[in-house]
Structure formats: C-alpha cells, structure tokens
Specification:
heterodimer; A: about 450 residues; mainly alpha; three-stranded antiparallel sheet; about 45% helix; globular; B: about 170 residues; alpha/beta; Beta Polymerase, domain 2; five-stranded mixed sheet; about 25% helix
Chain lengths: ~450, ~170
C-alpha cells in the first residue's frame, strides 16, 4: 500500500453531469441532485420546512445541500411493492439506512374517474364513485348521493337515513379491520394479517347479504337506498358485532403492549397538529395529533346527532396513535350500529318520487305509467337543477367531499371527489425524513392510503 | 420579510376587497365568495387570518358547455373557474371562493404560501385542466404521465372510444 499524500479529489469523483439514477422512461420524476433542486422543493422533500405562516419558515441555509453525493443513494420503492398498498411509488434519498427525503409519485392507478363521471347519468354515477375508495365504497356513494339530493332539494325518509348510517358504520368497521391486518403485516406481525382479514370477511358477508355485493355496492343512491334491509338483519348483525368485539380485544391483547410492536411504532413518524392542518390531512392523522376533529361530531350529518359515540384521538401524532385510534374507532362504530338496530325507524327506505327512484317491480306489470317511469329513469336518468354544491362527510380515512356542478341536464357538468387519501399522502413527506427505511414502511402503512382514491 | 408578516400585510390589504366581493349563500349554508383574480391572494390571506385554517380543496371547473350559469351581479363569467373550499376548525364553518379564469390567460396565484397542502391540489388542477398557478414551487403533472399532451378534464378534450365489434360484423380479413 502506498503512503503518499492522499489527493482527496481523486477519490471516487462523480462527474456532475451524469444523472444521479439510471434513466427510466419517466426521467423527470426522478429526485434531482441536491444542488439542482430548487430550495423550496428541497425543503418540502426533506420535510424540515413547512412554510407555515406562524410556524417554521423556509430557510434554504438550513438544508445540507453540500452533503457529498457519493455518500447518499437514491432508491425507488414501488410501485410494485407489497407494502405500498397498491401502486404507490416513493423516491427516497438514503444515507445508509436513514431516509433523508422522500417524494411520493402517484398516478399509476389514474383512470379518469372524474371524467367518466361527466359521461354517466346521476343514476349511473353511483357505480363510478363507489370504485374510488374501494375499502370504504359506501362513504363514496353517500357523499355523492347527498350532493345530488342537495341539488335536487329532496329530503330522504328517516328510515333511509338510518339505514345509510348503519351501513356506513359497518363499512367503517370493515375498513379499519383491514387496516389492522395490513398494518400488522407491514410491521411484521403476520398473524394480524390473518386475524384482520378473518373478521373483515364476516362484515363483508353481512354487507353482501344486504347489498348483493361484497364491495362496490352501489347501494346508497340518490333518494334513499337500493333495497330495504332483509329479514333477520338485526339478529345477524348483533351476532356479527360480538365477533368483531372479540376480535378487537384479541388484537389489543396481542399488540397494544407488545414490546416489539411498541418499539416499532411509538415515536415513529410524528407529525404536529399545525403540520397536519397545513398539509390538509384529516381523519385519524389529524386526530392522532391530539385534535379531536370528526365531522360526525363537528358538523353532524345523517342522524349522528341522535346516537352516542366518542371521538377517539391520540396525543403524540405517531404511528402507534394512528393504530390505536383506528382500533378503538371500531368499537365506537359498533356502538353506533347497536343504536341503529335499536332505533331503526319504520317506513320508506327511499323517497316515493317516481322521477328520482324507480317504481316497485310489481307495479311495472300493471301500470303503464310505472313502466314509463322505469324506462325513463334507467335510460335518461333524471334532470338536476343547475347549481353547484360541496358536501363533506367523515370517511374511514378523513374528510371525503363531493363538489358537484350541474348544468341542468341529466349528467353532472363537473364531479370532483375530494378523496382524503390524496391529501393525507402529502403528510408523508413531513413524517418520513430522519427515520429508517423500515419505519418509512410503517409510516406509509399508518397513513392508510387507498390508491384508487388517490389517483381516481 | 418573514412569512407571518407577509400574511399580515396581505390580510390588511384584503379587508377592502373582501367586503367588496360579491357573495352568495351556498346550498349547504356556507358563504360563497366571487373574487377577482387580483384580489384572490389577499382574500385568502384575510380568510386565513379570520380562522379558516384548513384548505380542504382546490379544484378547477371548465364551463365551456355551460356558459349561462348563475352568477351574482358584477361577476363576468369566464370559461374556467378555480374553486377553493376552506374550513375553519375553530368556528366549525365552511366557505367557498370561486375565481373566474379566462381561457386566453389561464393563470391564478398559488395558495402554497398560505396552505402548503394546496401543493398537490393545484398540481392536480394544472394537470387535468391546464390552469397555471403562479408561485407554485413545482407545477408539474401529478396524475397523468409527464409527456401527456392536453388536459383531460377540459370539455373540448375528446373522450376516447373503443369501437364495439358485434358478432355479425365482418372481421378485419
């Protein structure tokens, strides 16, 4: 070995013109070299800097732009990766095992559903929106139906309102159960995967019994719901809820104080209330920071005024809090469902306005008018008065909103769904920097993004 | 000047315009403000000062096929509209801002300075409708591929169709 003077410039010089990563067909989506990245973007990607008016302000000097690039590595996680919950792609710059910055790249599941929505009538629209957030389809249908009804100025009968609430809460249970399964899987608790799916499947079978489908129900429609609850629905759901409650207590026993679980989740991926609000994050992410914001309480819709339940919220804004919030929200939903069973009013399950809802099947055989109504409804749909409205409800993932513009015809002029995952995903950039790669997986999992809703 | 002082100044300037902008009440009981492009930034800053902490949604609308829509007096209808939904967590109130954006100069100010979360929303509006947001740190396509041509949610963007082959139709031979 020679002992001459070491010329530091001769050690692994990386020519600056060379692209940092191998070229792909999507070159411009790569993370840029640090010195080529505009300071604002670098600040956002490194998460240190959120330009909040009253919070930390961008300070380009604080960012370590001069970090030697041969010490860091840019890797690409996804879109084909089991822990990315579908087709999320994350670009990460790593220093050893530590993530310096992360940028999500989305759009792999973009199928133009908002454009499709403009081509479908209001009757068909439900089949489209239900496929956005495929784990909480009833929330999507509900928000779309509420928007259409507000433009139509139609009030649905009380039984329809209660059935909707009953179904949406069951759907919330199913969605949070699946979160328990996938979150456990992502963190290495593989048995949680089995338990979570097991209980969720029971809920889905119950939903199938009512709506005819396990997912993508198209059950909640403008004017009410598609069908009345079948015989024996109350006994079945009470039995189901016992299984769910037993399951939740099992998960709690398995994980809540499990030292490995606590090590992997407590203090990981923290976010403050100010950051969450500034980034537009809602739902369990906002609640985990100690801000008890739930639209069911804050701006009650349906009949949430008439049921008792508590808003579950955390205080540390970390992965553990988001896990525990979703776990105990299941029990709150169970409470609501029990009250729905007790208080379910009798009466119509949809408005009896033949311009909006179809006539009963038996009437079609005997009434020419019923036949015409049925035919018109399923070919042309109904006309909605011109106007625009924004309706928001609490989906399992946060505030889901529907901005609907009608031009007076039978199809929406603009259908925009505010899918909470799309907005929540932005908070990842603030949570990930400084953590390990394995923690980044935990963080993505705790955001619970549904890519169908992100990309729409 | 730090960001806080900037918001304060924008808010002070806005108090004249926020009163002057035509206002209606939305179907859900929320206030709908029709703001010109020049007063847009300062109005949002003022609303933020008033307690609208959360920018729920920014989206664009193309009114090409629907020119005669209802607008309050003093508002000139343009082809595009940028719609901003704001939420006040402390007052449990919502408000909506509608900005008219002409087709020939399709740009408005970005809200990124006040609401960092508007980043992805404005990129989506840019991607799907081609509305430019001045002052956005990284205005690039977010859902469509980088090299995509056109903006799909515009009304004059053709909807592709796959020709249906019926059984009786002669094959390609």
């Amino acid at each position: 070995m020679t002992t001459g003077v070491r010329d530091s410039s001769a050690v692994r010089r990386v020519p600056s013109e060379e692209p940092l990563t191998a070229l792909t067909s999507e070159g411009s989506q790569e993370l840029l070299r640090r010195r080529d990245t505009p300071p604002a973007q670098l600040g956002r990607e490194s998460g240190a800097v959120l330009r909040l008016p009253e919070g930390p302000v961008l300070d380009p000097g604080a960012i370590d732009v001069e970090r030697p690039e041969d010490e860091t590595m840019i890797i690409n996680m996804g879109p084909q990766h089991p822990s990315t919950h579908g087709v999320l792609r994350v670009m990460m710059e790593l220093d050893g095992e530590t993530v310096l910055r992360a940028a999500p790249v989305i759009g792999y599941l973009h199928t133009g559903m908002e454009k499709t929505g403009e081509e479908l009538t209001y009757v068909q629209g439900g089949t489209n929106v239900t496929r956005m957030d495929y784990l909480g389809p009833l929330s999507n249908e509900l928000v779309f139906s509420l928007a259409v009804e507000r433009l139509l100025d139609v009030e649905v009968p009380p039984r329809a309102t209660w059935i909707r609430m009953f179904m949406v809460e069951l759907n919330r249970i199913a969605s949070h159960l699946l979160f328990q399964a996938t979150n456990g899987m992502d963190l290495g608790a593989v048995s949680m995967m089995l338990y979570g799916w097991r209980e969720r499947e029971l809920v889905l079978r119950y939903l199938e019994k009512i709506t005819g489908l396990r997912m993508n129900h198209n059950y909640i429609r403008a004017g009410g719901v598609a069908a009345d609850l079948p015989d024996g629905w109350a006994e079945d759901v009470l039995e189901l809820l016992e299984f769910v409650e037993r399951g939740v207590s099992e998960y709690a026993e398995l994980l809540n104080e499990n030292p490995i679980w606590v090590d992997r989740t407590v203090g990981v991926g923290t976010i403050t209330t100010e950051e969450a609000i500034a980034l537009g994050a809602t739902g369990p992410i906002l609640r985990s920071t100690g801000f008890p914001w739930d639209l069911r309480k804050a701006q009650p819709y349906l009949a949430y005024d008439d049921v008792d339940f508590d808003v579950v919220f955390g205080q540390n804004g970390d992965v553990y809090d988001r896990y525990i919030i979703r776990l105990y929200e299941i029990l709150q939903s169970v409470r609501i469902v029990r009250q729905c069973v007790e208080k379910m009013p009798s009466g119509d399950y949809r408005v009896q306005d033949r311009k909006i809802t179809p006539p009963p099947r038996a009437r079609i055989d005997e009434s020419m008018e019923a036949l015409i109504h049925h035919f018109k409804l399923f070919t042309e749909g109904f006309r909605v008065p011109a106007g625009e409205t924004y309706v928001a409800i609490e989906s399992p993932r946060g505030e889901i909103g529907c901005y609907l513009v009608s031009d007076g015809t039978g199809k929406p002029a603009r259908l925009h769904i505010r899918g909470p995952s799309f907005y929540n995903l932005q908070s990842m950039e603030a949570m990930v920097p400084g953590t390990f790669v394995a923690d980044a997986v935990a963080i993505i999992s705790s955001i619970d993004p549904i890519m169908g809703e992100v990309d729409r | 000047m730090d960001a806080r002082a900037r918001v304060h100044r924008a808010a002070r300037d806005a108090h004249v315009t926020i009163e002057a902008s035509p206002t209606t009440i939305g179907l859900g009981g929320e206030t709908v403000r029709f703001v010109g492009r020049d007063a847009y930034r300062s109005t949002v800053a003022a609303l933020r000062e008033e307690g609208y902490e959360l920018c729920v949604d920014v989206c664009g609308v193309d009114y090409l096929g629907h020119p005669g829509r209802d607008l309050p007096e003093g508002v000139t209808a343009e082809r595009f509209e940028v719609v901003v939904n704001l939420l006040s967590l402390s007052q449990k109130a919502r408000t909506r801002i509608r900005v008219q954006v002409p087709e020939h100069d399709c740009r408005v100010d970005s809200l990124f300075e006040f609401y960092p979360g508007a980043e992805a929303m404005e990129r989506e509006a840019y991607d799907l409708l081609g509305i430019e947001f001045v002052g956005h740190p990284d205005l690039s396509r977010i859902l469509m591929p980088e090299d995509w041509e056109g903006h799909p949610l515009r009304k004059d963007y053709g909807v592709g169709r796959v020709p249906v082959q019926f059984k009786e139709a002669p094959g390609p031979r």
